[in-house]
Amino acid sequence: MFGYVRVDKGELKVREFEAYRGMYCSLCRALSKRYGVLSRLILSYDATFLAIVRFSQAQILPSFRPGRCPFNPAKRCSYCTNGEEAFDFVCAAAVLMFYYKVRDDLSDEGFFRRLLMLLLLPVAALWRKKAKKRFSNVDVLLGQAMAAQAAAEKEGVASFDKAAHACADALGKLFAFETDDENRALYRFGYAVGRWVYLADAVDDLKKDLRRGRYNVFACSFALTDATLSEPQKNAILETLNASIGLALDSFDQTNCKIMTPIIENILTGGLSQTTARLLKGDETDERSL
């Protein structure tokens, strides 16, 4: 995942933000516990969101205890004492996504980026091997999604919907993984968020993709030769991103998610819109931790 799915901190109550930060820190610790200390480096806001949705869908009320960050002992953290199965799933999904991202970058990126990916590949492959032992279906799902995405990009599709489908479908299936009666609503919810993430990433990468001659759905759709977007083009992008947010909100309302719903709603109504505005302004993404 890409790090775009964030909270609107200013609109959260203090206890809600503390719960969000507790989930973020707990996922960091869970990754280290399951896949080693280096796996902390792939921690993202998107994976934290998946963890929160997983807890909410399973109606697990997180219980926190105070602790300290192992890398900054002066920083106080809260760690979740329950929901181990949810963390198992999210950690596996995170490392598997990282593995396929490394594989994808080996074919897409420049020389130095490919060199870095070659160095990371053995570690990513080791994490993947461990994750597959319990979540082989997730590995198959993500592998198929990457293949479908590559085929769409090779075809050079100009449709926003077609370009985003593989990513959206994969996230929809992750949201609904091993659920029962509400899986269709959860799938639609995840699909909408996945569509937004793919298109947001395309906006963020537009300048770089054009410079390197790589596929970008907006470059194809608007026949761009440089990354300067006209106001009508920006409005078209804003409209399609907002449509995804609207679908996510409607679908979320149809799920049985009952836990941490103010945090989820804050991300959908505020966080995604803030990220959309920042990307369309051309601001650099901010990857600082909480």
Describe the structure.
With 290 residues, this protein is mostly helical. The chain has a single domain (9-281), classed as Farnesyl Diphosphate Synthase. 69% of the residues lie in helices and 5% in strands. It has a two-stranded antiparallel ribbon with strand order 1-2. A hairpin with a 2-residue loop joins strand 1 (64-69) and strand 2 (72-80). Helix 2 (45-57) packs antiparallel against helix 3 (84-108) and helix 4 (111-134) runs antiparallel to helix 5. The protein is globular, with a radius of gyration of 19 Å. The two termini are 17 Å apart. The model has no long low-confidence stretch (mean pLDDT 92).
CATH topology: Farnesyl Diphosphate Synthase
Instruction: Give, in spatial order, the strands making up the sheet with the most strands.
Output: 1-2
How would you state the average pLDDT, rounded? 92
The CATH architecture comes to Orthogonal Bundle
CATH class: Mainly Alpha
Tell me the structural class.
mainly alpha
What form results from the Cα inertia axes?
A: globular
Tally of helical runs: 10
- Give the CATH H-level superfamily: Farnesyl Diphosphate Synthase
Indicate the low-confidence ranges by residue numbers.
none
Q: Give the C-alpha Rg.
A: 19 Å
Helix content: 55-70%
Strand content: 5-15%
Number of strands: 2
- Tally of discrete structural domains: 1
User: What can be said about the biggest beta sheet?
Assistant: 2 strands, antiparallel
The helix/strand series, from N terminus to C terminus, equals HHEEHHHHHHHH
